[in-house]
Structures are given as C-alpha cells and as structure tokens.
Amino acid sequence: MRHDSTFSLEGRVAAVTGANTGLGRAIWVDADLGNKPDYARIVGEAVSKLGGLHVLVNNAGIIRRANAIDFTEADWDAVLDVNLKSVFFLSQAAARHMIPNGGGKIINIASMLSFQGGIRVPSYTASKSGIAGLTRLLANEWASQGINVNAIAPGYFATNNTAALQADTKRNAEILARIPAGHWGDPRELGGAAVFLASGAANYVHGIILPVDGGWLAR
Q1: If both were cysteines, with which of 55, 82, 104, 190 could 98 make a disulfide (CB 3.0 to 4.6 Å apart)?
Q2: Cβ-Cβ contacts under 8 Å for 178 (sequence gap 6 or more)
Q3: Span 57-75, mean pLDDT?
Q4: For the whole model, what pTM was predicted?
C-alpha cells in the first residue's frame, strides 16, 4: 500500500454546504441549503444521484454586524438558523444514512470566534461557539458508530464574509499585525485540512477543532 493512499478520497462522495462562494468553493462537491431546507431530501438526493454519502462538510454560514445594544431579533434568528440549527439537522440526516452504511466523516466549519468573543457579531459568535460544543457532542455520540465528527476553525480568510473587514483600513492593518504568517488566508489553503479530516488518515481523530489561522491563536 502506498503511503499517501491514507489521504485518498477516491470513490468517496462528499457534500459541502454553502459551496457557491468563499471557503466552501475551495473544498468540493456542493449541496447548497436554501430557505427552510428539507435535510432528509438533501441527503437523499446526494445518495441517489452520486451513489452514497461518505463525507459531509457543514460550511454554509452567514454573518450580521451591529453593536450588541442595537442587535435585532431577526438578525439573531437568521444567523442561528443557518449557522447552527442547519448544521445539527443536516448532520442528523447524514448520520441516519452513514450509520447503517459503515460510517463516514462530518466536518463542521467553526471560526476564530469559537475561541474568542469578537465584537459586533453577537449571533455569529454564539453560533460558532455552539459549533464547537456541537462538534464534541456529536463526536461523543457517533464515534462508536463509525462517524468521525470534527471541525476546522479558519482564521482570517479573504472571502465575501470578510469583505467589510478587508475594506476597513484600520481593522485590516490590526488583523494583519496579529497574523504571524503575515497575510489573509487564501481559501485554497483550507483544503488540506478538510482532506485530512475526510480521509482515513483521521480515523482516530474525534471531536477536535482544528485551527487553520496563519498562527493567529498562537500570537
């Protein structure tokens, strides 16, 4: 057996939510979530069209920015529904297929705000802190049933979600000053972590939050 075959995804079907732009576009096959998604239907279509489902990447996410004192209930609900609720119920639908079919890999996209508080993004911070906890909970329940549940925590990547920060000269300079790598992440720099967690190389990896942040958390 070749050494690099441990990382091979040959013959595996992967669904990546929110893959039309940004980080998800740099990972793989897409199964976008729409309004009021039918989670079982999404998984069912992936299975019927592609012959199975071995990997689910929960990447879909939105963000709303406002001071906490002014933050609206509508912006709270919108973000929690997409960033946290959909992750749980899509993972549940995927697990219902994976468990009787030999297991699989679920990879959630967390954030630096899974570790830190941030400012002006209360619902986003709550959702990404929730992703960290949910990743561990699902790992605890499903590891023994052949499903690896882990998360990737991207640092500051140049995507549509961070356009406002990149455009803010002061904040952009502050962010770059803290990143040891010295630059915003390119979405292509995230793919390797996803391949690792989706592959057989990560078979004994459960419930981790893997930062891919250019050293941000180390500073």
Answers
A1: 104
A2: 216, 219
A3: 95
A4: 0.90
Task: Return d(Cα 158, Cα 64) in angstroms, integer.
Answer: 17
Enclosing H/E stretch for 148: strand 147-154
Distance CA 17, CA 172 (A): 28
- Residues with Cβ within 8 Å of residue 197, at least 6 apart in sequence: 105, 107, 148, 150, 152, 205, 210
State residue 1's pLDDT score. Answer: 41
- Predicted confidence (pLDDT) at residue 37 exceeds the cutoff of 70: yes
204 is catalytic: no
Q: What is the mean pLDDT of residues 71-75?
A: 97
Return the pLDDT at 22: 60
- The single-letter code of the amino acid at 129 is S
Residues 169-207: b if buried by 16+ CB within 10 A, e if exposed: eeeeeebeeebeeeebbebebbeebbbbbbbeebeebbb
> 131: exposed, middle or buried (C-beta count within 10 Å: 0-12, 13-18, 19+)?
buried
- The CATH number assigned to the domain with range 3-213 reads 3.40.50.720
Strand partners, 56: 15, 106
Choosing from 39, 124, 156, 204, which is the catalytic residue?
124
**Residue 116 clears pLDDT 90, i.e. is over it:** yes
- Identify the H or E element spanning 56: strand 55-58
